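Q: What residues go here?
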């Protein structure tokens, strides 16, 4: 994934997720290439939406991670978070 690092607002991550019988995906945790795994405490919203800062279009998961809220995107075949 290191060749994809051209946008400073787009942080590519690996995601562990549950794939439910109704066809939905529920991300459980994510990990940046050199960072620790971060558990997603709660999914607040799921919708098709563009990443305005980082560019790209896909499924946007609004996630609660500890005290912080962030946007996790699935822009097939990649997952990324939008940096502040």
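A:
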């Amino acid at each position: 994934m290191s060749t994809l690092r051209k946008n400073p607002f787009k942080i590519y991550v690996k995601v562990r997720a549950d794939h439910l019988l109704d066809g939905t995906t529920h991300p459980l945790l994510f990990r940046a290439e050199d960072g620790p795994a971060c558990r997603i405490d709660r999914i607040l919203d799921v919708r098709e939406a563009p990443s305005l800062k980082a560019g790209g279009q896909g499924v946007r998961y609004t996630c609660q991670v500890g005290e912080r809220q962030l946007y996790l995107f699935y822009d097939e075949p990649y997952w990324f978070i939008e940096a502040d």
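A: Context that may help when evaluating the design: The chain has no helices and seven strands. The radius of gyration is 12 Å.
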